[in-house]
Amino acid sequence: MVEKKAKSKNHKAETPERMDIRTIARAANVSIATVSRTINRVATVNPTMAKRVWDVIGELDYFPNTQARALVSGRSKIFGLIISEITNPFFPELLQGFEDVAVENGYEILVSSTNYDTSRMYQCIRRMIERKVEGVAIMTFGIEAPLLDQLAKRNVPLVFIDVGPQSPGVSVLKVDYHHGIRQGVQHLAALNHKDIAFISGPLNLHSAQSRTAAFTYSLKECGITPSPKWIIEGDHTLDGGIAAMEKLLATNPQPTAVMCSNDMTAIGVLHKLNRAGLRVPDDISVIGFDDIHIAQVTIPPLTTVRMSGFSLARSAFAALRAHVENPEASTPQREYPIQTDLIVRESTGSPRNTRAQKSKRRRQ
């Protein structure tokens, strides 16, 4: 049975159920090659013909086959993004920023979450290779070197946080942990805190080591001796924050302030303190790290060190795009600095004994 087409000047009335570039070429009265070059934005296409093609694409509501385009152009225009765990609110914010800047520049993204599991890491890398991504932003830690070799031997540009191999096509986002943590310690010291604890991330991670080192250095800079019993290893999770705060509450004396290696840990700390009948900041002050969106609405709102997920996303995309679109650059940028800054909210205040002394002096 032959399908009959209605005669009309309106292209939509003539549109068969299946559309491809041949349909567009017939409707625009141009060659298939012209449609292909137009869709792939080849600069040599006649502007008048290109407009005609785009007009028909708009009328027919046609969506180009990106896989077919990749076969023709040799480019997938897909960047991979590997993160640790999607349940941590920091990563959806980073993901949103990465997707926003990618879409603005005509790229797609392929997202994978490792959950710190080696088998999942392997699956993540395999997906990236199968989809022929043009570059991968690795916004996690602890990926096995042999898995990275799978990408490196295919000359896939990579971007890491903090550390990465000294290889061509590799860039690193260098987070200035010291600046923000130093501001946090100085803020607590200015409030007369001297008994300050720190809950780190997993100390096998470079980022956790860097944050812990920044904390101890900043304490010494303020004339405060770090106490080993008040430096607790956490795991960057809410439950880890609860468990770490339980350990700190078991010390004698207890700290008057706690800095945390990320906001999820700090939220766990707030929860544990509330369950223990302690008030923040009246009984103890708390500082987080990351400035995830919900830090603004915790009770009380969380003082934290801001490490912008959007800044990470924008710099990661810029690094990958530079490698892909300007591979012959004589001096490719190896490092991209990421700034950190303290955001003061309501979870920090003077320690109780200092407030009592000030009150006594006022009465005298």
UniProtKB/TrEMBL annotation:
<keyword id="KW-0804">Transcription</keyword>
<dbReference type="Pfam" id="PF13377">
    <property type="entry name" value="Peripla_BP_3"/>
</dbReference>
<feature type="domain" description="HTH lacI-type">
    <location>
        <begin position="21"/>
        <end position="73"/>
    </location>
</feature>
<feature type="region of interest" description="Disordered">
    <location>
        <begin position="326"/>
        <end position="364"/>
    </location>
</feature>
<keyword id="KW-0238">DNA-binding</keyword>
<dbReference type="Pfam" id="PF00356">
    <property type="entry name" value="LacI"/>
</dbReference>
<dbReference type="InterPro" id="IPR028082">
    <property type="entry name" value="Peripla_BP_I"/>
</dbReference>
<dbReference type="InterPro" id="IPR010982">
    <property type="entry name" value="Lambda_DNA-bd_dom_sf"/>
</dbReference>
<dbReference type="InterPro" id="IPR000843">
    <property type="entry name" value="HTH_LacI"/>
</dbReference>
<dbReference type="InterPro" id="IPR046335">
    <property type="entry name" value="LacI/GalR-like_sensor"/>
</dbReference>
<feature type="compositionally biased region" description="Basic residues">
    <location>
        <begin position="355"/>
        <end position="364"/>
    </location>
</feature>
<keyword id="KW-0805">Transcription regulation</keyword>
<dbReference type="GO" id="GO:0000976">
    <property type="term" value="F:transcription cis-regulatory region binding"/>
</dbReference>
<dbReference type="GO" id="GO:0003700">
    <property type="term" value="F:DNA-binding transcription factor activity"/>
</dbReference>
<protein>
    <submittedName>
        <fullName>LacI family transcriptional regulator</fullName>
    </submittedName>
</protein>
